Amino acid sequence: MADLDASGTDVVLVEQTAANTGCLVREEVYNPEEATEEANVSEELEKYWKTVKENPSDFTGWTYLLQFVEQEGKVKTAAEAFDAFFKHYPYCYGYWKKYADLENKNNNPDNAEQVFEHGLQAVPLSGDLWLHYINFIINTYKNETKGDAKIRSIFEKAITAAGTDFRSDKLWDTYINWEKEKNNLRNVTALYDRLIAIPTQLYSHHFDNFKTFINENIPKECLTLDEFLKLRQVIISNQEADTAGEDEDTNQDAETLADEVAPPGDEVPPGMETDGAKTDEPETKAVRKKIIEIRQAVHQQTEEEVSKRWAFEEGYAKYLEPHSVEGVRNVFKRACNIHLPKKPSIHMHWAAFEERRGNFAAACDILKNLEQTMSGLALLSLRRISLKRRHGRTNDVKQMYTDYISSASSTDVAGFYSIKYARFLAKVCGDLSAAKSVLTDALDKDEKNPRIYLQLLDLEMSGRASEDNILQVFDQAMGSGLSTEDKLKFSRRKLEFLEDFGTSIDKLLQTYDEHQKLVKEANAEKKKRQLENAGDAGTNKKAKVNGQREGSLTVTSPTAPPTTPDTSYYNSWSGYPHNYNYQGWSSGYSSQYYPPS
Q: What confidence tens digit (pLDDT) does each residue in 128-141 have?
């Protein structure tokens, strides 16, 4: 029987007489146009094959062949090309993914899975290939009855094979996030316990995430029951030791508060709340703190191991420099472009190396490229400025300071660059007027920044000092929105200045009287804080008694010992002591060399 299908192609329906079928099989009849097209494709394919057969090391030729078979989309033809390619280049993980994707698009998920498995046997340390395989497994098995077990087994294979690699961070994060989505909090903790002991590139990021995870979830849900109960017992024992020597006030308070205590059984034990219950009980906080403390020691050991790895290529470059300049340059390129693209110090070492070799332009490019990747890093900005300054590019330096100030993420950062710019203008350019103008503009935006006032004083005191100008800066600082504590420090220094350099006894006595008022104001503020602290301590004590009556644990913070300001600093003007340590005070500001970005 002959027939014509809807497309107009001649087909024949052949009735099968075999006893085991009894069905009709559709067979295509020869089509001249299709045959011609296939012949053309076959001829083009043979040309690509001929290139790689004649020269198997021609990698570009292989890429053309694979691109061609991908476009054609015929699995059998593509499989032959990929299999031949991998005999020569088994480590090209991207092509393993292409091969698997081709199988999957043609509804061959089992074959795709086998391709991934073969690829990972060839490149077991490829975190990227593992991630592609995991995404494939998740999409394939997510609706299966035992899909989670299958997915978790693949994650474990990936971690076992590549989890200790220095750049395996994304692999770990993917596994942890998947367990979080499944609400398997104990599994998440177990993964973090494994991860924080492994020196990876983002080790600090992982520990910060772990702390956030613990603080955002109920401890009992994050730990095995044995570990939770063991930690809780340790905390209870410590609390009992801390409270053993307390006086009888606790018992009196307990009797007073007896009516306020809830009946036994009405409250869930701290640390074991369910969703919606209180999670800020003192014991819960203590458990969380203990969980993090235990793992802090492991994190510190990991940090030491990471430091050793980071120092390797820098040390190797230093060793190699006397022997081969080009070899050192290649080490830096590999380290900065491949292994440690976001480690500022090694990029700066590279820039310094190029600068020593007279390659000013190369040094500038290295630092500029790094800043594009890691913007907002003050240390890097200053290194770029210093490089320009050393080579006499004064106008470039001025422009860079201006740009950094205008684009600063906060007034504190802008003040930091303004101080640096003012020093450059004063010390390098000798332009005191411009330096003062920069600081004045900074104060207009941030009048509560004591470091800017200090820099203004430094400028005024350099060279032949003007008493009126210096006193004006002091008055400006003390009349601003600075805290009383900061104003008191400026007042002390003003007294010292008038004592050493002042020309008027009236100004000195007036400043002394103003200083005494500030001392009294500081005393009043400290007493107020002490009363507030005492009130907080009373609240904690009440909570502790409630906890004891319920058989639970409450961790209280010891009341800070009362402190009083040094009112004997100036008993009388005639006994004014010259022991003010300006350097010690100012170091508290200068130690914060780089503001937070």
A: 999 999 999 999 99
